[in-house]
Amino acid sequence: MESPAQSNLTSLPEETLEDTINDSNVAGGNGDGRPSAFSSVPARPPIQKSSEKYAPLGWSSYFDHEDDICIPGSNDVFHVYMAGTEGPVVFCLHGGGYTGLSFALAASKIKEKARVIAMDLRGHGKSSTENELDLSIEKRRETEGKQKGGKKRNLITTNQKILDHHLLGH
After folding, report:
1. Is 4 a residue whose pLDDT tops 80?
2. What top-level branch of life does the organism fall under (predicted)?
């Protein structure tokens, strides 16, 4: 059995700062005539802060207006974005971790033929509720019960007749 000192592997020489500087002065090489493994790597774009890269979209380029809907008998306020003036209602429900703005691009096209309502659900976006973490079906039913006859219902009704509507989600 071979001892670790008698290994068949050869060690690579360590690069010094001077070697690195010299290598960068030789186009695409490492100073000894061989091309560098990094010679084809494109230059990185300037570094941006996460807050710049992932800044939220402005709603006004996609939706016509926004509103806050207060739920009677509670401190819950749900934020909605709306677009379009006629046609069926497309009610957009976003997935976990998103907001009504997830539908911004779709709304800008759909509003040409329908009305769009995209809301920030409990614990998301600009909505504010007493218990942001309670995402249970029971809490959802309780909230929907308080909304009956409230502003949400009026968004999709005219003269007590429910308009044609479609539900869109992701």
Report:
1. no
2. Eukaryota
Q: Give the three-class secondary structure for 110.
A: helix
> What are 25's two structure tokens?
């002065």
Cβ atoms of 115 and 84 within 8 Å: the answer is: yes
Count CB neighbours of 21 within 10 A. Answer: 10
Residue with tokens 């003036």: 85
Q: Which of 84, 90, 80 is nearest to 168 (CA)?
A: 90
Summarised one tens digit per residue, pLDDT across range 52-74 is 777 666 889 999 999 999 988 88
Position of tokens 């996460």? 50
Calpha distance 136→123 (Å, rounded): 12
Q: Please, which pLDDT band fits residue 169 given cuts at 50, 70 and 90?
A: low
Measured distance CA(92)–CA(99) in Å, rounded: 10
